[in-house]
Amino acid sequence: MNTKLVRIAELAKENPKMTFTSLAHLLSEGELKICHRELQGNKATGVDRVTKVMYQEHLNEHLADLVKRLKQKSYRPLPVRRTYIDKPGTKKKRPLGIPAYEDKIVQRGIAKILNAIYEQDFFDCSFGFRPNRSCHDALKVLNVYIEKRYTNYIVDVDIKGFFDHVDHQWMMRFLNHRINDPSLLRLIARFLKAGYMEKGTWYASDKGTPQGGLISPILANIYLHYVIDLWFMKVVKKHCQGQAYLVRYADDFVCCFQYKQEAERFYGELKQRIGKFNLTLAEEKARIIPFGRFAWENAKRNENKKPKTFDFLGFTHYCGRSKSGHFRVKRKSSRKKVCAKLKAHGQWLKAHRTNDLDSIMDRIKRSLIGYYNYYCITDNIPSVNAFRLQVIQLLYKWLNRRSQKRSYTWEKFNQLLKRCPLPQPRNKVNIYQLRPELSYIL
């Protein structure tokens, strides 16, 4: 499949208008076996409760039957299992859809095919769920647009419940631009309309693509490529006299403009544009803010003490100055993300405070390392240090509640930290160091 996908990618790149008529045959027994091996075995199970280990017991028989059903067009995905996770900064819950294991295998195979085709079409402004691109890359490019280009205004918007409101008809129309294989299109449509199970009840899904599905990220990128990216690059920028830039990570995006009137015009047109595709803006989060090298002067003119800030990809961006006094964009961990992480740490410590002490310390250590890997970027070490101290305070609090008797004084607790030291944060990502393979974007 690798060789065939490389050829498909080459053809897609050579001819942007080419449609592919024969793709479903790529979901062969051998290729699905590779997809099975690539899946992680420790993920949550779907409605059938089948794990990777269970499926592997009779792998060849399962895959032979799966391919037979795919060829006969009798394969039908099971509904996803609906579960909920906390939404940072609010009391709301975010719905997740967990597919059955066999459906994960097929979805992974389809995602590979779609990626091979659409990676050639996607614009450089898109970073989410794409190979060799990350959140840090998006932050670095945005930093250049604000500091080195003529950015004076930021349009900070949020699409309300994007994954829950993807229009299936529009989704299939977008896919038809590049794919004319009825078998593959039928398969994707069945995944979209498989529905979900919640508390033993099946619910139909006439819109949306469930977060948690392996096919959802690429489908989301395809949808937003046609709804946002293509429109911005081919229409919005051409009608702007000043500079205009877009940085998008999945459904989270920020737009930079040189002139206020063009930012306001874009904001007004954006509501109409996404409304055409049955999406809506979260009005309470959407705004246009002065941001850039002249933001301090604008704030003083409007009798504000400081320029406004905006959040993007877990960081609060604010206007700062370098040691030499020049304008700089700085970042710190978003308050709502920090609060959500601290809440998760507190809940875990409360539930596991009676565990073996070494296992508790090991768990906290691994959690901090994961946090550092993302949040330890240029300018953000003080914020991460503050987070580490709050985690230590939570640890002290819950270790003292392992029994009715107070277990630790601060002196004794500090001895524990010397014996089981928690890692110190250090800078992991230089926001000014763009990877060579992405430098052409700028």
TrEMBL record:
<dbReference type="InterPro" id="IPR030931">
    <property type="entry name" value="Group_II_RT_mat"/>
</dbReference>
<dbReference type="InterPro" id="IPR043502">
    <property type="entry name" value="DNA/RNA_pol_sf"/>
</dbReference>
<dbReference type="GO" id="GO:0003964">
    <property type="term" value="F:RNA-directed DNA polymerase activity"/>
</dbReference>
<protein>
    <submittedName>
        <fullName>Group II intron reverse transcriptase/maturase</fullName>
    </submittedName>
</protein>
<keyword id="KW-0548">Nucleotidyltransferase</keyword>
<dbReference type="Pfam" id="PF00078">
    <property type="entry name" value="RVT_1"/>
</dbReference>
<feature type="domain" description="Reverse transcriptase">
    <location>
        <begin position="66"/>
        <end position="317"/>
    </location>
</feature>
<dbReference type="InterPro" id="IPR051083">
    <property type="entry name" value="GrpII_Intron_Splice-Mob/Def"/>
</dbReference>
<dbReference type="InterPro" id="IPR000477">
    <property type="entry name" value="RT_dom"/>
</dbReference>
<keyword id="KW-0808">Transferase</keyword>
<keyword id="KW-0695">RNA-directed DNA polymerase</keyword>
